[in-house]
Amino acid sequence: MRERFIRDLDVLIPPAQFDVTETIFKQLGFVRDPQPRGEEFYRDWHFHMPWRTPSGLVVELHWDLTRRSDPFHIDVLPLCRSVREEQVSHHELPVHELSVALLLSCLQLYQESFLFLNRFVDIDWLARRSSEDDWDRLRGLATRGGMNTLVFAALETSHRLFDTPIPKRVRDRLSPGPVTRAVVRSLALHHHVARPVPIEDLTAEWLPRLWTCPTLVSRVCLLARFLRLDDGYWWDIFHRPRREVSHANRWRARGRRLMTLLQVLLRHVLGLRSGHPSPRGRLPLGDTFAAKKQRPGNEGR
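Request: output the structure for the sequence above.
Response:
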C-alpha cells in the first residue's frame, strides 16, 4: 500500500453482508454521515454508504464498486475472497493483490473523470511492482468487466506522464480501435492535485467517461442519461430529488447542459484537428496550485 495521509477508509463487503456490517458499525460507535446528499442518494444511486468513527475518520462501506448506470460491472465477491493480510502502520490490514489494486485505481480514474494526479501516481507505483502473473490477471479482470478501453486509457496516460512500464502484449490486448485510441490519448492531458473550485458544470468531465465506455451502445446510453438529468443527477449536484424541482427548471437545466455539451465537444474536435487537445474547461496545473493558495482557509498550507 502507498503511504499517504488517510482521508477515509474504504471497506468492501459482499452485498449480502451489508446489514450485518452496519450492525457491527453501530456497536463500535460509528454513525452514518450521508450529508449533504442524504441516505436516499447513496442507497439508490451510489455504491457505498459513508460512516464516521468516534474519532472522526470517514469510513465508506462499499457493497459495490460501480453505479447501476455505469457501462461495466465488477463482481465484488471474488475480490473479497482474494484479499491478503499486510502490515500497514503497525496494523494487519486486509488488502487486495496488485492486479485488483490496479483495476480499482483505473476505476477510480473513471469515476473522477481522469482528473487527479494522485491516481496516476498510484497506477505507476503499482505497475512497477507487478509481475507477469499480475498483468495477466489484470487483463482477465478488465476483459470480464468490460473495462479494456478504460484500463488502456489509464495505463496509457500513466505511461505518458511517468513512463510507466506496460508490457506490449498487455497494451495490445487492451487497446481499442484506432479512432477511440486517438481520442482517449487526448483526453487526459490536464490534471490537478485538487479539484478546481468552482465547477460550473460537469459536462467536460463526462468526455473521458463517454470515450472509455466499452461499446457504441453504452456510449449512447451514457450520453442519453447525461442529457436526461435523472434523479441521481439532482441528488449528486443539488442534493435534492428531481420531484422537488419544477418542470420549468428541469427543462432549463437540460438546455444549459446540452449547450455546454456542444461547446465542449466542439472545442475538443477543434483541438484534435489542431493537434492541441482542449483542456476540458479546467485550469492548467500551475493555476490550480495558485487557486488553491488563494482559497479561504488554505493560508499557510
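Confidence is low (pLDDT under 50) at residues 196-201, 277-301.
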